[in-house]
Amino acid sequence: MSKNDNNNGFLVGLTFGLTFGFLSGILLAPKSGKHTRAIIMDTSREWKEKAEELTTNTKDRLSNAAKMGKKTVVQLKEEDFDNLDLDNENL
Question: Which phi and psi angles does 82 have, rounded to 5°?
Answer without folding.
Answer: -70, -30
